[in-house]
């Protein structure tokens, strides 16, 4: 093993020498292998001297393991076995102490005792802690005295001064030194800075900024509103500076309260009860501020007190009612203008303004009540009905005469008291059913009554039959002793064929004063029932139907009947339409049909355009005229009658010939048309109505005979008679 101190020089340094006794004519050759061979360490192959060629640093590598070999330079054979050896680097003090975790921050409570540990710092030295004193450290304080001290071995910083007050100084900077070589001369050193903050404790009491506060508060200040502020300052911070405020003297009636503003730490003075200038004008309060937190070492929480003087300022106050709410009663039959009750209010101010009273009509839309504006007397304006409204809630306002803006309100609840003004009546419209096979004494219906009134002693109803029905042979009633009765049948011979329905009038009387009564009629229907008394049918028609016929069969029969009726109606309608003529003439408007064509004739001399005599006289049947290819436009116009043609041609034959011509005419249009002719046939006692061939003028005609032809020609005769009378006038 070779030992070598850390080397820092520029020249190689001899580490050691290898030698062998088996040397033959200087043929031995030395060589190294292993850690650092050839780079850090070199060997003279002839002499075996080992040199360190570079700087050695123990902190980087403390030892090196190498292998030495000696061989014959000629043959290359080993002269001796290979030898392994170690080169150990011996430490020197070449590293200064270091605070690897610095700078440091620490906190300690103010007023801590001397010797209280604050923080422990740690320095490290890279030198060998085993060899020599190169890594032995000693700590000292360079800055921060006389407030703090440091333990030279453990590096623990402690309080060195008594009564360190945060309110005087809060932050400190302490410089700590670490020196190796045990602190002796020549040793290396390192420093670090420690920032130390004193933590607050509750060591200061709250203190009011002044001992006397004075406030002027108006008497109409609303409850919960701020009337003044007080504040106690505290030199502490955070939770230690928070205080609560309280009134400890001068407020026996509990008029005031003081709350703490959490943000500003002020005491806010508020009202818990209204102020009254006329009853008390001054208050002197003692207010106390107390810290929320207290230190165990102190005797209880810190406190401070101050005096608060309050002067009440007079304000114009609204009227004050004698009661916040009034309860009045009135009978429902009370007469108009009856006094129901009185409300009173006063002006609390010293001036004592007169008061005027009004009803808020939004609460009395139907104006059922009135109030005297001077004395507050409430009277009835309209009749009341308890059964419609049992309670009436109105609002009364009181206003100062001198200042109309000062208004107060009070609720007046008016209860309408009941009187017996409603007669009892059946609870519902009963309809009883009586079985034909019922037994005598059987209960047909249980009847009860209701009364809109609400007597204090409760309802009691008396039931009885009307006098003329007391001895009726069919029904009787029985009192059930629970304000109801049972209607009983007297015999079992009821039959629907004999009488289907019975009416039983019953008088119901209440127990009011005076008693009220009403007559109610119970309808009793006689029905067919099963053996178990279940109602099956209640009319005579149902009785005569075959018993074996079901409801489905009845519906089928009814549907067949309806279908037959529909078929008959359709058949009659079709027959009627078939027998109707093609042209329906109005009985009141009998006119001839004139065919008008759209071609213009050549005047009286034009005899080729159209031969109208062909239509007027069947004598022209043999004449053939070509047909115009123009659709005829029918127009109905009244005209005078004409005589029948002189020749005896049959109209039916005439029409058939014209029809044959129209069917065989190649120039005829392709559409069907109805041919209407002005010829009326011969043999009629009335003759022709056409005026085309008459030889006489209109003035020579007498149309009175038209009225004798019956209702169909009555209107025509009236038209001609009117025209004739017009000409005479």
Automatic annotation (TrEMBL):
<feature type="domain" description="Cadherin">
    <location>
        <begin position="426"/>
        <end position="548"/>
    </location>
</feature>
<dbReference type="InterPro" id="IPR002126">
    <property type="entry name" value="Cadherin-like_dom"/>
</dbReference>
<feature type="domain" description="Cadherin">
    <location>
        <begin position="322"/>
        <end position="426"/>
    </location>
</feature>
<keyword id="KW-0479">Metal-binding</keyword>
<dbReference type="GO" id="GO:0005509">
    <property type="term" value="F:calcium ion binding"/>
</dbReference>
<feature type="domain" description="Cadherin">
    <location>
        <begin position="21"/>
        <end position="99"/>
    </location>
</feature>
<dbReference type="GO" id="GO:0002009">
    <property type="term" value="P:morphogenesis of an epithelium"/>
</dbReference>
<keyword id="KW-1133">Transmembrane helix</keyword>
<keyword id="KW-0677">Repeat</keyword>
<dbReference type="GO" id="GO:0034332">
    <property type="term" value="P:adherens junction organization"/>
</dbReference>
<dbReference type="GO" id="GO:0043083">
    <property type="term" value="C:synaptic cleft"/>
</dbReference>
<keyword id="KW-0106">Calcium</keyword>
<dbReference type="GO" id="GO:0007043">
    <property type="term" value="P:cell-cell junction assembly"/>
</dbReference>
<keyword id="KW-0965">Cell junction</keyword>
<feature type="domain" description="Cadherin">
    <location>
        <begin position="100"/>
        <end position="208"/>
    </location>
</feature>
<keyword id="KW-0732">Signal</keyword>
<comment type="function">
    <text>Cadherins are calcium-dependent cell adhesion proteins.</text>
</comment>
<dbReference type="GO" id="GO:0044331">
    <property type="term" value="P:cell-cell adhesion mediated by cadherin"/>
</dbReference>
<dbReference type="GO" id="GO:0007156">
    <property type="term" value="P:homophilic cell adhesion via plasma membrane adhesion molecules"/>
</dbReference>
<keyword id="KW-0325">Glycoprotein</keyword>
<dbReference type="GO" id="GO:0016477">
    <property type="term" value="P:cell migration"/>
</dbReference>
<keyword id="KW-1003">Cell membrane</keyword>
<protein>
    <recommendedName>
        <fullName>Cadherin domain-containing protein</fullName>
    </recommendedName>
</protein>
<keyword id="KW-0472">Membrane</keyword>
<dbReference type="Pfam" id="PF00028">
    <property type="entry name" value="Cadherin"/>
</dbReference>
<dbReference type="GO" id="GO:0000902">
    <property type="term" value="P:cell morphogenesis"/>
</dbReference>
<dbReference type="GO" id="GO:0005912">
    <property type="term" value="C:adherens junction"/>
</dbReference>
<dbReference type="GO" id="GO:0008013">
    <property type="term" value="F:beta-catenin binding"/>
</dbReference>
<dbReference type="GO" id="GO:0016342">
    <property type="term" value="C:catenin complex"/>
</dbReference>
<keyword id="KW-0812">Transmembrane</keyword>
<dbReference type="InterPro" id="IPR000233">
    <property type="entry name" value="Cadherin_Y-type_LIR"/>
</dbReference>
<feature type="domain" description="Cadherin">
    <location>
        <begin position="209"/>
        <end position="321"/>
    </location>
</feature>
<dbReference type="InterPro" id="IPR027397">
    <property type="entry name" value="Catenin-bd_sf"/>
</dbReference>
<dbReference type="InterPro" id="IPR039808">
    <property type="entry name" value="Cadherin"/>
</dbReference>
<dbReference type="GO" id="GO:0016339">
    <property type="term" value="P:calcium-dependent cell-cell adhesion via plasma membrane cell adhesion molecules"/>
</dbReference>
<dbReference type="InterPro" id="IPR015919">
    <property type="entry name" value="Cadherin-like_sf"/>
</dbReference>
<dbReference type="GO" id="GO:0043679">
    <property type="term" value="C:axon terminus"/>
</dbReference>
<dbReference type="InterPro" id="IPR020894">
    <property type="entry name" value="Cadherin_CS"/>
</dbReference>
<keyword id="KW-0130">Cell adhesion</keyword>
<dbReference type="GO" id="GO:0045296">
    <property type="term" value="F:cadherin binding"/>
</dbReference>
<dbReference type="Pfam" id="PF01049">
    <property type="entry name" value="CADH_Y-type_LIR"/>
</dbReference>
<feature type="transmembrane region" description="Helical">
    <location>
        <begin position="543"/>
        <end position="572"/>
    </location>
</feature>
